[in-house]
Write a structure and sequence with these properties.
With 218 residues, the protein is of the alpha/beta class. It contains 10 helices and 6 strands. Helices cover 45% and strands 12% of the residues. A 6-stranded parallel sheet has the order 3-2-1-4-5-6, with helices on both faces. Helix 9 links the parallel strand 5 and strand 6. The model has no long low-confidence stretch (mean pLDDT 93).
Length: 218
Amino acid sequence: MTSSVELIIFDWDGTLFDSVGQIVKSLKFAAEQFNQPLTDEDAKSIIGLGLPEVAQVLFPKVPELHEQLLKCYGDHYVEHSKGDVWFDGVAKMLKELQDLGVQLAVATGKSRKGLDRVLAQTQSARLFRATRAASETKSKPDPLMLAEILAETEVNAENAIMVGDTSYDLEMAKNIAMPRVGVTYGVHTSEVLNLYSPLCVVQNVEELHAFLVAQVKA
């Protein structure tokens, strides 16, 4: 990058938060209650999308069940996800980036209710200058949530970095010409993430931390 970095936007599930396993379990539980076939890989593949889009992709033949399926998923997730935490090193990374003066934000496929719950759980709301959930804007890979964050923080796209673990995250950033970084410890592989021309793809939080700090200091 040649432009200075003023803002770093993070996806939540699979990027900051170690919750992919529970999301898959809860989706499969909901599917089983309504006799809908669902594999682990299919459940994992939609992480990052908004909930209405999740239902449309996973259960296209039973639109009349979407509301019930999503409620069942959400209830199961909340009941069983209390052990979900940030990946090791995330808290340290966010604190150093904040200390360096860069603004931080979140762009997630979660609902606003779900995002507020985990922000409270991690006591991290104060870290983020702006947050956007899929329930209050358009789902990834539409870039609207990024455009809204840029407007709120008064930062240009070229001065921001989007960090995510899925193709939806990186495609969203590419759609608004925002530099992007992929992480492979969440959902999608480096082969998939590299299709969206990221600045780099990292294997763990330690590598992500070092790369982002270097970009901010450059």
